[in-house]
Amino acid sequence: MARILTTAMFLMILCTALFSISTAAEINKTVSPRVIDTEGKTCTACHDEHSIGGAHGSVSCEECHAPNSRHFARAADIAAGAPGCLNCHEEYKGMMNSTMHTRIPEQRFVLESYGRYDSGFFDKNCKNCHVTSCTDCHAPEDPHSIAEPQDDACHECHRDYYTGIEYRGLGIREDHERYQRGIEYKGGHYAAMLPDVHYEKGMKCGECHTMASLAGEDTEPKTCTDCHEPDMDVIEHSIKGHMEKMECWSCHSSWANQEYGTFWIRFNESDYSDFFRWVKRPNLDYAKSSHTKTYTPPPLAVGENGRYTMIRPEFIGFYTYIDHDRVREENVMVSNTFKTTFPHTTRRGTVMCDSCHGSDKRLMRQDEKDRIFLLDKDGLEISNFFDHEQFSLNGGRFINDGEYRTITNKDKEYKKLYIKKWKRVDRILNAQ
Q1: Beta-bridge partners for 293
Q2: Are strands 392-394 and 326-341 parallel, antiparallel or unpaired?
Q3: DSSP SS3 for 133
Q4: In 168-294, which residue ranges form alpha helices assigned H by DSSP?
Q5: How many Å separate Cα 235 from the centre of its chain?
Q6: What tens digit of pLDDT does each residue of 48-75 get?
């Protein structure tokens, strides 16, 4: 009898143990499908468990974080090839060599300008703003909260003098602290300007600049006429030369951030550094200032496609070096380059005729008698910010003599359309 009871108790204990093991395994499976076992530990033994929603909600840890010789790979790091992302999103592998990550154009510019005087200039002043991980844009707050990028993520880099911030109507302020007022956004102060009409309608950056276009380095994935059909009843549209030879934004971009004269002052063991405490100091070795910043319609030139477009200074750069309170180099011009640009400040209305046809300044042919700034008398190597002969242009060429004469020739046809335009403006104003 005792032997039967002993056998029965053993079987009960064995069944209970087997049930407990099975239940524990099932609980571990259902509680956290993202937990894996490696060397006797689960991910959550060391890492907090993350809540992942959306399309990635059913993905386990190891599907993004593949095992490697050390531990598990960082899924989104571009330096490692973003293996966890490209495992599924192979069509975006072009992002690994994107200028958003490599910053090759910026590095080349610095190498040919300020880098000739300080090989560490880029690392000191320019290195912070570039994409190092897919999550910089897709999950800036929490790397596991993956979603389509919002405009705020774009403007982490596309602000200050990079094209983009003007889209929401923000004009860059002068560097001195006395001008640090107005709208605060991402640690900076901006002037309130007219935003782009597409921004007012709620359009996001990604509606034109798609992931496919970014991966393919396509800076113009959509053109205006992809969505808009020009109304030929508009006087400006009725002019054949406008429609055949001009980019839409040459008239419809209402303003652009522009910086004329960019000064970088380098210090080495100098008390003079304290005199520049009121301007921007991205690095303790440097102070940055500018001659003039403006938010006007920028100058015009001819783009590489042969159409008239807008331009602004890439950088008209100057370098000064103060070593132990002695000025070793002063206002050496290291770059004098404009570049073509598309200001994201589109409006339905446009500038008036004289803004182009009557402005030598916008055509980069300002007469000496009309200039305000006497740059040469300030000791600079240039005399006029709006004299094309003193600068080079990336992405196109300056307007030549023949084109200048055609643009400024106010013949009978020009005068007829000019009067027609003003009559239409007068009619609109009187109707209000």
Answers
A1: 259
A2: parallel
A3: strand
A4: 197-200, 211-215, 240-245, 249-252
A5: 34
A6: 777 777 778 888 888 888 887 778 888 8
